[in-house]
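Possible regression after last week's pipeline update?

I re-ran a chain I had predicted before the update to compare outputs. Posting the input and the new output here so someone can diff against the archived version. Not blocking, just want to make sure nothing changed silently.
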Amino acid sequence: MQRRARPRSGFTLIEMMVALAILAGGLLAMLSVQVQALKQGRYGRHTSEAMQIARDQMELFMRLPWDAAAVQPVAWTLPAAIDVTVQNEGGAVAQQTFNVSWRITTAGFEPNARTIDIDVTWTETDANAGFARRFVLSSIKNNES
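New output (post-update):
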């Protein structure tokens, strides 16, 4: 009597290579998505920091008296650099530099009102280096006397 050879069960080498290629493609796609999420998270954090800088400057102007020198009409000021730092094991490290300038003008519709514009700019420090970003905040200050 002859014994029949049993068919072997399992995967062939070609099937394994195809499965590994599909797995590698999926992992590369997930890596790409993760890198993009990190960039967008950094951009969102920088935008939030720029908004906070602009709000702090606007609050300063709003609290000053109407006749204070700092809230008198002025053309755009020269940008002032503000470094936002983070603390790590090696000490404080500059994470991002923001440039802040402002303009105060007499509101044309009301002589007892001034328009305050605050402009915050920064440059992203990732692969898109040199790509400038901007956040502008505007408000009106009334003479309450």
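Follow-up from reviewer: compared with the archived run. The longest strand covers residues 91-106. Marking as no regression found.
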